[in-house]
Design goal:
The chain is of the alpha/beta class. It has 16 helices and eleven strands.
């Protein structure tokens, strides 16, 4: 009887194994949390197509927009605590937790081309940055990809085109831009981008910093009727992070599918802002009465001074936050900007060529 029971158990196991081997891959659900609204410029050209391609591999991406799960700096803890499987955030909002990552973001004037800095942002964090891996690992996460926003601009309730007009103005600004504007006489106010509309409307701030599309995305044009037409630098630190345990739970085929999409999602996101930036400017002027102001000489001179001075500031800040080997890493970012500027120039800024180059130089070399 014991032998028969053993034989039946073995046979049942064999049947179950055969059924498992012959069964299709189990569908996986990915909870993707972000502070951006479902109307953000990256949604239709980047995020939704990415999710559709993953669906072909039985990966279902469920988006949670507008900070309904977690906002900004709360994203790493949300992944750690299982509230989200993936998260999207600007690392500036988590500088204390991500000092090695934010070191790169705090160099906004190294290069003002978001295509160049999208590649730099990834390579500087994902290759040879031990601290970058470790700080995310504390939350059970890894960098899925990184991209750069385009340059920031100063958007105000009243005209600001010179230092005298900027003096004493309360400006919603984060990180290095806040520090830079404070040197120019402004009073920086740290608050998330999503709080900008109410702060402008109520007069809690006189100005905000943001990229072209933010005036449209967040309806800042209702109050900010003047934009200083001078790029203040870009933030090459928009991270998409993923739970390590969630990734490991996927089938081998699903993992390959996820990894194959990293460079394209980053490029699609960065290029989406190029397409929408001009549209936002046109609508702002023609339908919302916004005026773009030419910067005067004194404020342009301050920006030129900042190009070098901010590297020293970044070094001091990075040392204070405990980033690893910050001097060498700052030099590496500068070198990478030269490398990727050459690649972008040689390819004429073609998106497909940039995707291919990022896959070859970065993403194919990085495994979670």
């Amino acid at each position: 009887m014991t032998g028969l029971k053993s034989l039946l158990t073995t046979s049942a196991a064999a049947v179950a194994l055969a059924a498992t081997l012959g069964a299709p891959a189990t569908a996986a659900d990915i909870a993707y949390a972000t502070h951006i609204p479902s109307t953000n410029v990256t949604v239709e050209p980047a995020l939704k197509p990415w999710a559709e391609r993953l669906a072909e591999h039985d990966i279902n991406v469920n988006f949670f927009w507008g900070g309904t799960v977690a906002k900004h700096g709360a994203m790493p803890p949300a992944i750690r605590d299982g509230l989200a499987d993936m998260g999207f955030m600007a690392d500036l909002y988590g500088a204390q937790d991500l000092p090695n990552s934010v070191l790169v973001t705090n160099l906004p004037l190294v290069n003002l081309d978001a295509r160049v800095m999208t590649a730099v942002a990834a390579e500087a964090r994902m290759i040879g940055c031990e601290g970058c891996e470790e700080e995310l690992a504390e939350f059970g996460a890894f960098n899925y990809n990184v991209f750069s926003l385009p340059s920031q601009y100063l958007m105000c309730r009243e005209p600001v085109a010179n230092l005298a007009q900027l003096e004493g103005k309360k400006v919603r600004a984060t990180g290095v831009l806040g520090r830079m504007l404070a040197k120019w006489g402004a009073v920086p106010v740290a608050m998330p981008v999503t709080d900008g509309y109410e702060a402008l409307e109520r007069g809690q701030v006189d100005c905000t910093t943001g990229i072209d599309t933010f005036i449209m995305d967040y309806s800042w044009w209702d109050s900010a009727k003047y934009i200083l037409d001078m790029p203040l630098g870009l933030f090459a630190g928009v991270l998409t992070m993923m739970s390590e345990s969630k990734f490991e739970s996927l089938s081998e085929e699903q993992q390959k599918a996820m990894l194959a999409e990293r460079a394209r999602l980053a490029a699609d996101s960065a290029y989406a802002y190029f397409a929408e930036g001009e549209k936002a400017r046109k609508l702002a002027v023609e339908e919302h009465g916004v005026t773009f102001l030419e910067p005067e000489d004194d404020i342009k001179a301050k920006l030129e001074e900042a190009r070098i001075a901010e590297r020293d500031e970044d070094l001091a800040q990075s040392q204070k936050l405990g980033a690893k080997d910050p001097e060498a890493r700052i030099a590496n970012v500068v070198a990478l900007a030269e490398k990727w500027q050459k690649i972008v120039d040689e390819t004429g800024g073609d998106k497909e060529a940039l995707i291919e180059a990022m896959e070859r130089e970065i993403y194919s070399k990085v495994q979670p």
